[in-house]
Write a structure and sequence with these properties.
It is a single chain. This protein has 4 helices and 4 strands. It has 108 residues and is α+β, with helices and mostly antiparallel strands. A 4-stranded antiparallel sheet has the order 1-2-4-3. β3 and β4 form a beta hairpin.
């Protein structure tokens, strides 16, 4: 049986600038969480228009794509597309109180 999230996951990665622009991907209860190298390559309008995507949240460190309760299936479909590009120099992020607080909440 084909994975119903294969096509939408491919479109999500494309709208984020391709797998080479994704530094890391994780997920929580309802969201795919992407760390991207170049935020300018993100097409938020295309992401929001995809079927199965309930919303998009951008913050300093992540682009979060809201999928809902079946986020695990979408996450597996993204991993099947390949692993995020982790080669090269790591992306430096500005440390702020907000980013520290967000990191603590993500850990919880």
């Amino acid at each position: 049986m084909p994975n119903p999230y294969a096509e939408v996951s491919r479109a999500i990665v494309q709208s984020l600038g391709g797998m080479q622009n994704i530094e890391a991907v994780t997920h929580c209860m309802t969201r795919l969480r992407f760390v991207v190298k170049d935020r300018a390559l993100i097409d938020s309008a295309a992401l929001k228009a995809l079927p199965g995507v309930m919303g998009v949240v951008n913050n300093d460190a992540q682009c979060q794509v809201i999928i809902g309760n079946n986020v695990g299936k979408a996450y597996q479909a993204i991993l099947e597309l390949g692993t995020p590009a982790s080669g090269g120099a790591p992306v430096k992020r500005k440390i702020t109180l907000r980013s520290i607080g967000a990191g603590i909440l993500d850990a919880l």
